[in-house]
UniProtKB/TrEMBL annotation, chains A, B:
This is Chloride channel protein. The keyword Heme does not apply. GO terms for cellular component: lysosomal membrane. Belongs to the chloride channel (TC 2.A.49) family. Gene3D superfamilies: CBS-domain (3.10.580.10), Clc chloride channel (1.10.3080.10). Keywords: CBS domain, Chloride, Ion transport, Membrane, Repeat, Transmembrane, Transmembrane helix, Transport. PANTHER family: CHLORIDE CHANNEL PROTEIN CLC FAMILY MEMBER, H(+)_CL(-) EXCHANGE TRANSPORTER 7.
Length: 768, 768
């Protein structure tokens, strides 16, 4: 039973990938399992992070240097220079235009239509006393927006849920997450995030933007769309996993670059979150892409804002500049920053733990799509109600100043000439609220307002993350942190009044709080420092920000890993961390590998190949090719590696020895044929092989990778791990001392081992 | 004959490594060769970059996982957590204190003693008309300083010459440059750079600072000094190449961080210049080190400046803040920036080409130490004379303003109430001059002054780089660039007067020019962008700086590689670039490898081992261990890899099978014994082995690396390259299909191939 539940838990997915299969199980199964679950006590709740899902495949990052490849390279050599310049300068404008477009639409909806209406009604009903109508109106409007977004995500493309960063992180790690870089995902993501932001949820649009950047990059690099059945016949060279992954890392960097106006931060984000296979050349290309991205955005933003040519909008978010007079900090503030970092780490860990339990609850009970949509609508309504209640009961009316930076200083329930501070925090777009918390002059917000706001937004944000909507966690985290950071600053100045003017501006503490909270939740350090420095346009605070982020990471890591890692673990993705678990040197390849291995002969019967590929129980993707002739001693020796996708293409084109002989002038298969089939190779079932053809032979020598990487069976786990990860392998052959294949190491075999509380632990493999 | 010359050219070194051996050749040889050289026409000048020196060894970055290692790890497992935290938080304060100390002394000498005296005499003699005395005084003072520095470098530690960045770059690439991270090198470097800066040469102190950081890190990580014969018995775990290299990368980052106040730039510098073996964990540690570095510096600087606690001095150089009002730029300035980038690329390429020829001249004719010292003194005297002449003939007298930022507005030959602009540019420390060019109000410098200054400083700088003194090229490049950049800005406002106020401030163009010039010379992009942004404290110019740096790199790369790479090539270092040359897939391991290979049996006679190690003709550092028993078929199969250093330790401790048997309670050898011998393993000649002992046997199984990485002989060069570089290997075994060793690939075998003008070219190996 426990196994059953575990499977279920892993199947009903956080990323909503396994949705179809769960539904296919039928009502009956689900009901039985639900009854089982009810009987479980909390302590018996299955920890599905002990499982590793088998449904994720690796990317083929390793180049298969078969004869076709060598021939093509020889052909290309004379025209190398032209091609290289193509590789150098990827055209990366498209992602940015998209971002640009998104922004305009997103910025528009919350700022104008909805609040206009609500404000009108509130103004009207404040006089009449019938406030319930405006609350209802507000809640319904929000829920309607969110419903559209949730339906889109739940019914059309579940992978578009959430921020997309965990998925991109997995992809960059080398895991093939199904449908993560498809056009449909992009469309749903874009529409979904507009709906969630317009629906007033506690979400940001930066994570989705990073995901969008990655999708656009993956699409552009392929020069075609399989969804639209349109092939532009360009960039055919890039049609393989290696190139596509490099493009995706550049796209993610361009996304960060456009979202925060942080090109260097974008490069570092790709590096920190996905630095599996990295080299100098890639850095330099990604940097170029990021630069063009922020440049293009800047250009269109200036046109949009009516000041063409003045570059001052490097990113969608602009947290505003800190004035150069106030950007000093003092030695005795350093301990305070460290304390803030620790608070951020604690709050972040709390956020992650709460969200972890909530996610497990969701996986178990909220696996039906309608339930998911309803939950999203409920959250939208509650968000509206909470903010309404907070604004209503808030007595924080501030006199309206002329030089105020508020774009929407809402009067609401305040007297004339005053505006409601709580409403400013709740009613504006989250980005505006963050800027307001950073830069508003001292006294703009009362401590109780900030405390209440922090509490309410914290609860809303942790409830919201993981909903079936497209939404990011960056901005909510920054907002929570800015609120308690400002509170921290105000309390400081109350505790030690007029001791020094350095306390005077709580905006500095708001910035540190924002950094601490975000760092505590996502645990990025280097890239986040640079992103925040670039987004605030201020280098002086770089040092304290680093300090705060490091403290937050150290404190937070003590309790639980970062939010993205939590979700990756819950999804049972075979994610390879940067190093093998410590003290695992005594484990050898022999213990780690999968065996026995299904291998093919150099010249193999078509029937055998079809049978092996059709076997659902194994479903292997790579097969060693071995020598079958010669003495006993020689037989079984490794001579190459062939992939399922290659075999499928060979079968499809019926590249059989007999046919090749009979038709002398038959066109030889080229790499182009493999590229055309990429990335959606047909399943073996769709390929018809007649009974006669089953008796034919296939010569694999020309197509296999003749020199796959191998390790001897005594190789230790860290050594295997290092080789596997450094080269981005998918299959690593384990051979004995006469070069006979005795096993195969794949990603799952390595990801299974991790450091638990009691030393090295091994996870089970789940087929769900 | 050509061969002879080539050897010579490679022996007389840029880094002054091979000095001793050249001198040992004796006068006779040198004279013959010089006569030969005279007959050569310019076109016949030997291109010694076609040679690859065999004197450089690789680092052992790959861990030898022998039984000792596994046992130690098993022992360490229970106390793992404590140790890990040790590994996490390297103590990195020492480098920063050193930097701090350096700065105070360096800042002091040029600012105070010398200029005081010269100014006094000039003031005096301007009235008397006897100016030649003051010129003489100045030139003698400068030459004296430089002489001390040059003698230190030439006679005590030639490796301390130059900026040290090429050497550190090689070290991070995995090349063991002799003596590069020794205490003596640090001392000579520090004293040398003080002398060069005080001697008024066109040099900076930032490169040496990066080298110093690396040395300090390497020293601290070892917990002992072999030079001082002091062992603190700490950090013994770090006594191997792998750990030391990681520390050196952190030290270099800390050096950048302290020099420019750029912690993120420091991390990126280590990444961009040395990203051979990189992982997330290392990034995060290096980031921590950089942060502590800039922090410590900041702390001591504030105390030094008398404002304890106010953190506003993140780096030694402070280029000053750009005011927030003037930091806008406009769309139509973008093409101008690109043009500036192109100019920078061209001038940088010119600089590199000139310096390249000069270096070849120096290698050939200036190989004697006294000549080198004399050249350095000559340069110092000429520098003094040139600046004196420029100041004397300059008529650029500017009225003295009260709010001027000049710390030393020298009156010199100007009327009262005015100061000499040329003198300001020449007489201040280069750092001050750069700041002045960036921030002085429009009209401070006349165009002719700037043009003359650019020309003079360009010539002086290219002559100076490569002298036998410790000196960096960062600041001179920035200064040249700032001068012509400012000139560019002034010319713009003259050409298009009062069209727009955006031209008004030439400081912006000075910054772009500085970036372009430095980028054109050293060809860094990502890290240099961040360093400049952090050093100027301004994010807005990040985008144009990137653009300028990229253009400079693209334009410059068209002509010649970066200055550091030029010097690495001239030094014939087997440097591995990030990727194998394109279109080299048809080369296989069989063609690339060295063979035959000297291998040992698992149980080998001591005499054989001593003989092999003593053989001067081969001088191998790694030996395959093969199976010697069994049938013919099995014999020769690879079963491990043992290093020369390991064999030396074994011989020293006389770990012979017979002795082990006779003394049952003899202490077994531990990893500690190997670590104690690190890094200066004694030469084989110093180990005495008696005739009886030669007949003993040694069991290598326990000490060898049982699972070295191997490749089959058909593996292509790029595949071998990728494996080699990604894992930081030193030896890669090539095996046939029954696992018999048929060859060995080392760094030289891979570095030999490079893309030349006519496709793939192969370099010769030089034993010099």
């Amino acid at each position: 039973m426990a196994n059953n539940i575990a499977k279920k838990a892993s199947g009903g997915s956080m990323f909503h990938i396994g949705r179809m299969s769960t539904v296919d199980l039928g009502e009956e199964t689900i009901n039985t399992e639900e009854q089982d679950l009810v009987k479980l006590r909390p302590s018996e709740i299955p920890h599905n992070e002990k499982l590793l899902s088998l449904k994720y495949e690796s990317l083929d990052y390793d180049n298969s240097e078969n004869q076709l490849f060598l021939e093509e390279e020889r052909r290309m050599s004379p025209m190398m220079s032209g091609n290289q310049s193509l590789v150098h300068l990827w055209p990366h404008r498209p992602p940015d235009r998209t971002h640009c477009l998104l922004h305009r639409r997103r910025g528009g909806v919350p700022g104008w239509k909805k609040y206009e209406a609500v404000k009108h009604y509130i103004d009207k009903f404040t006089e009449d006393g019938g406030l319930s109508v405006s609350l209802l109106l507000w809640a319904i409007l929000n829920s309607a927006f969110v419903m559209v977004g949730a339906i889109l995500v739940a019914f059309f493309e579940p992978i578009a849920a959430g921020s997309g960063i965990p998925q991109i992180k997995c992809y960059l790690n080398g895991v093939k997450i199904p449908r993560v870089v498809r056009l449909k995902t992009l469309l749903v993501k874009v529409c979904g995030v507009i709906c969630s932001v317009a629906g007033g949820l506690a979400v940001g649009k930066e994570g989705p933007m990073i995901h969008s950047g990655a999708v656009v990059a993956a699409g552009v690099s392929q020069g075609r769309s399989t969804s639209l059945k349109k092939d532009f016949k360009i960039f055919e060279y890039f049609r393989r996993d290696t190139e596509k992954r490099d493009f995706v890392s550049a796209g993610a960097a361009a996304g960060v670059s456009a979202a925060f106006g942080a090109p260097v931060g974008g490069v570092l984000f790709s590096l920190e979150e996905g630095a599996s296979f990295w080299n100098q050349m890639l850095t330099w290309r990604i940097f170029f892409a990021s630069m063009i991205s922020t440049f293009t955005l800047n250009f269109f933003m200036t046109i949009y804002k009516g000041k063409p040519g003045e570059f001052s909008n490097p990113g969608l978010i602009n947290f505003g500049r800190f004035d150069s007079e106030n950007v000093e900090y003092n030695l005795y503030e350093i301990p305070l920053f460290i304390v803030m970092g620790a608070i951020g780490g604690l709050l972040g860990a709390l956020f992650n733990v709460l969200n972890y339990w909530l996610t497990i609850f969701r996986i178990r009970y909220l696996h039906r799509r309608c339930l998911q949509v309803m939950e999203a609508m409920l959250v939208a309504a509650v968000s509206a109600a909470v903010s309404f209640a907070m604004i209503y009961f808030s007595s924080d009316c501030q006199p309206f100043k002329k030089d105020s930076q508020e774009e929407y200083p809402l009067q609401l329930f305040c007297a004339d000439g005053e505006y409601n501070a709580m409403a400013t925090a709740f009613f504006n777009t989250p980005e505006k609220s963050v800027t307001s918390l950073f830069h508003s002059p001292p006294g703009t917000y009362n401590p109780p307002t900030l405390a209440l706001f922090t509490l309410a937004y914290f609860l809303l944000a942790f409830w919201t993350y993981g909903l079936t909507v497209s939404a990011g966690v960056f901005i909510p985290s920054l907002l929570i942190g800015a609120a308690w950071g400002r509170l921290f600053g105000i309390l400081l100045s109350l505790l030690f009044p007029s001791k020094n003017t350095i306390w005077a501006d709580p905006g500095k503490y708001a910035l540190m709080g924002a950094a601490a909270q975000l760092g505590g939740i996502v645990r990025m350090t280097l890239s986040l420092t640079v992103i925040l420095v670039e987004a605030t346009g201020n280098v002086t605070y770089g040092l304290p920000i680093m300090l705060v982020l490091m403290t937050a990471k150290i404190v937070g890591d003590y309790f639980i890993e970062g939010l993205y890692d939590v979700h990756i673990r819950l999804q049972s993705v075979p994610f390879l961390h940067s190093e093998a678990p410590a003290t695992s040197h005594w484990l050898t390849a022999r213990e780690v590998m999968s065996s026995p291995v299904t291998s093919f002969n150099k010249i193999e019967k078509v029937g055998t190949i079809v049978d092996v590929l059709s076997a659902t129980s194994t479903n292997h993707n790579g097969f060693p090719v071995v020598v079958n002739s010669g003495t006993d001693n020689e037989s079984g020796r490794l001579c190459g590696l062939i992939l399922r996708s290659q075999l499928i293409v060979l079968l499809k084109h019926k590249v059989f020895v007999e046919r090749m002989r009979s038709q002398q002038n038959r066109r030889r298969l080229q790499l182009k044929d493999f590229r055309d089939a990429y990335p959606r190779f047909p399943p073996i079932q769709s390929i018809h092989v007649s009974q006669d053809e089953r008796e034919c032979l296939m010569d694999l020598q020309e197509f296999m990778n003749p020199t796959p990487y191998t390790v001897p069976e005594e190789t230790s786990l860290p050594r295997v791990f290092k080789l596997f990860r450094a080269l981005g392998l998918r299959h690593l052959m384990v051979v004995d001392d006469v070069n006979r294949v005795i096993g195969l190491v794949t990603r799952k075999d390595l990801a299974r081992y991790h450091m638990g509380k009691h030393g090295l632990e091994e996870m089970d493999l789940a087929h769900a």
